[in-house]
Structures are given as C-alpha cells and as structure tokens.
Amino acid sequence: MCGIVGYVGFQNVVPVLIGGLKTLEYRGYDSAGIATIAEDHLHLIRAKGKLRNLEEKINGHTPGSTIGIGHTRWATHGKPEEHNAHPHTDSRGGLAVVQNGIIENYVVLRYDLKDKGHSFNSQTDTEVIPHLIEEALLLERGNLLHAVLRAVRQLEGAFALVIISKEHPGELIAVRQQAPMVVGLGTKENFCSSDAIALVQHTQRILTLKDGEVARLTADSVNLYTFAGKPVHRYAQVLNWNRSQVEKQGFRHFMLKEIHEQPGVIRAALARHLVEDRVELPLPPKFLVGIDRIQIVACGTSWHAALVGKFLLEELAQIPTEVSYASEFRYAPPPMDASTLVLGVTQSGETQDTLSALDVAVKKGCKLLGITNRPESRLGHFIEELGPKRGALLDMGAGIEIGVAATKTFTAQLILFYLVALTLAALRRPEYEQAALLTALTQLPAQLELILDAQLAWITEKAHEVNHLHNFIFIGRGINYPVALEGALKLKEISYIPAMGYPAGEMKHGPIALLDSSCAVVAVAMPGRVYEKVLSNTQEAKARDAVLIGVTPRTALAEDTFDILLPVPEVHELVSPLITTVPLQLLAYFIAAHRGLDVDQPRNLAKSVTVE
Ligand code: F6R
C-alpha cells in the first residue's frame, strides 16, 4: 500500500523522487523518505508525517545525485515514526531498500541475522532485507543483482522492493512478488515505481514486472530476470495517459475534480460499448454462454457497486447473483462450479482480499470476469494468465483516480454492470425490450452536468448547515439501498463523522433508537416501486426530530417532507443510482472540506489495499 519510486539517469534525482512521491502519496502517507548516492556515500533522509515534512527536511541538504529511491509509507509493522520510515539500510549504511508489502517470515529471518551479529533500528519487517542482501553480497562476491536474487528467494509474503548500493552507484534493482512494480523507460534515464502514475510526468513507455521477477536498471539499460536468475524478454507497453490526469486542473481537491468527471466517464463508456443501440462488450465469443449463477467478490465502494450489479443482473438477466465481501469469501466460499461466473470488481486491480478470493474461485473451476480501472494491474495479469476460455477483463476506462475516496470509478463500475446485465439479458431474454433503459443511460451525462452546474453552490451551503450534526443515517430501498451505503461510506471516510447506511425499512428495527435532533437522516427516494415506502420511513424519522435530507425529485410532497432537499431529476428507476450518488458525494465532500480536512488523503486510509 506504500508508494515507491526509483530513478537512475542524468537529472538531479531529488525533484524526480519528490515529484513521483507526490503522485503516490494517496497510497500511504504516515511517513516518507529518500536515499541517494553521491560522492561515494549513501544519503538518507526520512521524516514522520506527510511528504511536506520530508521536503522541509531535505531543503537543499542533499548533495547533487542522479540515482535514488523514495518511499511514502502506510504503516503495517511498527508505528509511523521516523525510525520506521523507509528506506532501511544494512549494518554498514552502504545499501538502502524500500518495500511495499509484508515479509511474513521476517521474525525468523531477524533472529537468524541477529545471531550473525546484525543489529536493527526499527520495528519493521522491511529492515531484514538490507541485512540479508548484505550477507548475500559476501557470498556473491559483491554482485548486487545476484545478492538481491539470493536474498529475495529467502523472503515469504507479498512485496515489491527497490534497492540501491553505494558500491554500485549506477545501478538500481527492482523486485516484484505479489505487489505492483513497473519500470518506466526513458532516454539515458530509467525509472521504477509501484504505480505508473508516478512516471507519466517522464515517460509513457512502461514495462510491468510479473510476480517473481527482478529488473536491473542503469541509465542506459533495463534487464529483467526471474528470481532464479533466468533472463526475461518483454516488450514495453505505451500508456495513453497524460499529465493533466494527475493534476487538479483548478479544482481544490482531486475528489472534486473526479466528481465532475463523472458525466464524461459515462459518455465515454457508452461511446465505447454501444454500437447501433446494441451493447457490445469486448469479451471472448460465448464467454457469457452457459452460466447458471453469478458470484461477485469485491471490497468497499466496489462492493457497493456490486450490490447494484446484483439487482441489475437478477432483474434484467434473471440470473441468481450473490455478492460477497472478498475478505469473507476466501475463507467460506459457497458451492461453485464451471457454470458459475465469478465477477471480481476492483478499481485498483491490486486489492489483495479480492485477488485472493478470485484465486479460490479459479481453483473451483469457475470462469472469471474482472472489472477494473487498471488493466495493467495484478488482476489484469491474473486474468491474462487464465486465457480467454477461463478469464476476461473489462476496463472501466475512468482515467486515473487520485482521491482516496472512490467517486468516478464507482460510476464507471455501475455503467459496466448495466452493460454486462444488458448483454446477458440479450442472450437469455431476447424478448426484453432494452431501448427505454439505453435511452435513459444516454440521457444521464447531461442530467448530471445540470446537477453539477446548478446545484454546487446549494449543496455547499446545505453541507455547511448540517456540519454540526453528530451522526448521519443514510437510507434507501431496492436499487438505491447500495447508494445509501455508499453515501455513508463517503461521509465517514473523509469527514470522520459516524455514518451508517440502512435499508429504509430496517430503520424501525433498531437504528431508530439513535434518532434525535443531533442526527441527520439522508433518504434516497426515487419514484418507482418503493418511493412511497421510503417517504413513509422518513416520516418515522421526522417524528423523532432528526434533520431530514432528501435526494429526490422536487415535488410538493418532497418539499413538505424534507428539511433539506438535494433535488435530482426523475429518471428511469433502474438508472437512478447513477444520479442519486452524485449529490451524496458532494454532500460528503463539502462537509469534509468545510471542516478543513484532508479530503484527498483521509487519515488511516490508502488507495490500494495490498495487504489482507
Ligand atoms: C472507498 C474506497 C474503498 C475501495 C476498496 C476497494 O472510497 O475507495 O472502499 O473501494 O478499498 O478497492 P478496489 O476497488 O481498488 O479493490
């Protein structure tokens, strides 16, 4: 979950490392550090807290250098203190290592190394690595690549590493084992990182390492090897990303920018996948034929998107569908076989819980359909290795999402669920008339633009009015129940206000006890089969003095029912989650922004969760 960046070339390395770490700070931000080599010495600077603390500490205090590594940390082993920050060094202070992941056998290794006379300065699992390499260098007669290979073969767990050594001042070694690592190719310079986002400022040419591979980078060359030392040949891929995607472009936060990108995300997805009013997904022929049931695994916001997906798959395609938290599924998978399609939904494609759950499903013989925003991720590789009979991948195509709280990628996931459900409906229920739903989908971008243009000031003001409330309960029913869950998650993760999502009809079975005038009830009430029911559930809350907020079309009844209205247009009931989510994202955003909180990097969170 940490961010890693490495550079070897001709530029002054410090701005390259800091620039890269800034784009990676969303992966972890408890502490940060860099190591560079200059004048035959390794120079190490680390600081607790956000990257700006490291920048202040560096402030011209490193000698000029053209090779270095940097790290931004999300603590697993050891508190977020300076001595636990990466890079970590060996006993001589000659080589430095940054790591993302967990070394599961570090305790045993640490005892062994202590017996050999090594001493440790941190509580991290990472610190054993430079000491192991130090030992291996003796056995490998100073060959850094061979020493790293010898050391990594002793490590257990999921990890990505980058290593530099003052005895090898033009060489940088990158390692990947179940944690992301990419190499960026330049001219007389090369880069590596845990995420290609950090490299787009410099190059679009990327080599993605696979699990069990090591790359040796110099300014002029990149060579790949397996952990056994066998050379690997791979062509570079060219990213179609640009710098503007990693800039705020005038918005105060990435989250606000990404909320505004949602109409474009929907438009682009429909343009990609609608051909003459028919859905065409890039799936292998017959991939969706012969499926009896669907099992979806996901975490967090992706799990909420999956709940909407279940509704659509059952309603449109009439296929029984289950949704599981990936972290629960792995240890209690339901009965499944080759007729079960397993959908893995993960925007990052790196969430360890989801990847482990998919591994279980593959072992049971299921077909896999991955939905991700990062096709170059571990999920992408996993599915590629399965081959087109067993696995397929759908790219959400939402563009890079930097804000830690998912917004536009939720919308992109939803759109793909509509398109998958319609594709399956066409196969299984040719009598189902798709036109009305497709028209409703194509009208959405303009409707969302209206909300974003016309209501921004209104929602800002209303967010200010409810900022003092202590507790928020989000309610919805049917296809908008997952939207209530997502509204609650957005609010709690960026504003730290206790918030929960509930099916509206369940409130009277418990949560109603929480209600008083310090509590807000946010109801998603869209015209359709449960509209009146949701409205009557809100009356129960009103009778208990809660502040009532409604995401609902403006009607006399709605004006009368709610204290605060966040109006949305009346739309086809089935597409309503795509419209009702946006006011809730904005409400959460403005509440957190009014409180002066770090909206893009909320405390304790990381954008991709690569540990179980
Ligand atoms: C919430 C959020 C997280 C992620 C979750 C899964 O805003 O971003 O809940 O949705 O960690 O991440 P992915 O989709 O990358 O598997």
Task: Give your account of this protein's structure.
This protein is an alpha/beta fold and 612 residues long. The protein has 3 domains: 3-244, Aminohydrolase, N-terminal nucleophile (Ntn) domain (Glutamine Phosphoribosylpyrophosphate, subunit 1, domain 1), CATH 3.60.20; 248-450, Rossmann fold (3-Layer(aba) Sandwich), CATH 3.40.50.10490; 455-600, Rossmann fold (3-Layer(aba) Sandwich). The chain contains 18 helices and 27 strands. The strands form 5 sheets. Strands 3-2-4-1-10-9-11-15 form an 8-stranded antiparallel beta sheet, covered by helices on one side. Helix 15 (481-495) packs parallel to helix 18. Fructose -6-phosphate is lined by residues 299-302, 346-348, 351, 354, 405-406, 489, 493, 608-609. Residues 299-302, 346-348, 351, 354, 405-406, 489, 493, 608-609 line the site of fructose -6-phosphate (F6R).
- Summarize the main sheet: 8 strands, antiparallel
Shape: globular
Quick one: how many beta strands? Answer: 27
The CATH homologous superfamily of the largest domain corresponds to Aminohydrolase, N-terminal nucleophile (Ntn) domain
> What is the fold-level CATH name, i.e. the topology of the largest domain?
Glutamine Phosphoribosylpyrophosphate, subunit 1, domain 1
Read across the widest sheet, the strand sequence of neighbours is 3-2-4-1-10-9-11-15
The level-1 CATH class of the largest domain: Alpha Beta
User: What share of residues is helical?
Assistant: 25-40%
**Average residue pLDDT:** 93
Which class of secondary structure composition applies to the elements?
A: alpha/beta
- How many domains make up the coordinates? 3
What count of helical segments does DSSP give?
Answer: 18
Q: Alpha-carbon distance between the termini?
A: 11 Å
